[in-house]
Amino acid sequence: DAGITQSPRYKITETGRQVTLMCHQTWSHSYMFWYRQDLGHGLRLIYYSAAADITDKGEVPDGYVVSRSKTENFPLTLESATRSQTSVYFCASKPVSSGMHTDTQYFGPGTRLTVL
Amino acid sequence: AQSVAQPEDQVNVAEGNPLTVKCTYSVSGNPYLFWYVQYPNRGLQFLLKYITGDNLVKGSYGFEAEFNKSQTSFHLKKPSALVSDSALYFCAVSGNNRKLIWGLGTSLAVNP
Prior knowledge:
- The complex is a heterodimer of chains A (about 120) and B (about 110).
- By secondary structure, chain A is mainly beta.
- Chain A contains no helices and eleven strands.
- The termini of chain A are far apart.
- By secondary structure, chain B is mostly beta strands.
- In chain B, a hairpin with a 5-residue loop joins strand 7 and strand 8.
- The interface between A and B is medium-sized, with 20 and 20 residues.
């Protein structure tokens, strides 16, 4: 049971390039989330999805695009990468429950992205 | 505005001693409180949560946390620290608006 996986684990890219980070979960969880983790900022929510074809902005969505055509996948795309997007990105999922933000989330191992 | 604070960037404790990692919060309505742990180069793992009921919550790896409504705190504790407990600990809280807010994290170092 792989759980939740992210790929690639490490990525170096250049300013202006498009980058897609992949997230895949095997639990059929309804909710999926993308966070970025930066020193001094903790975890910040970029986008989330309540189900396939339903996505919504989080705290810091600018410069990012998401899609969710299948329940198990939630890719995050940086359309034109900037140095400020250098960060560690975490995907998370959770099953449907009484409240979107009130239940345990399960995190992937993270993708360390460097934008030169 | 809703907020969560982890007042200590780093906590150092000797192996075998009790440890406390502090968390205070400010939310509207009844809070939902969580602790997660992050080991080096890993994703976050759920430790425990308080939704309702007994103020003392027991979680994974021998950790526990006490919800204190009057002090708006949810400190993480363990009676006897292990070197393997060394990690980054995050407190998170959700209130009436059901948005989860994360603390900045506290780095715990347990010295042998």
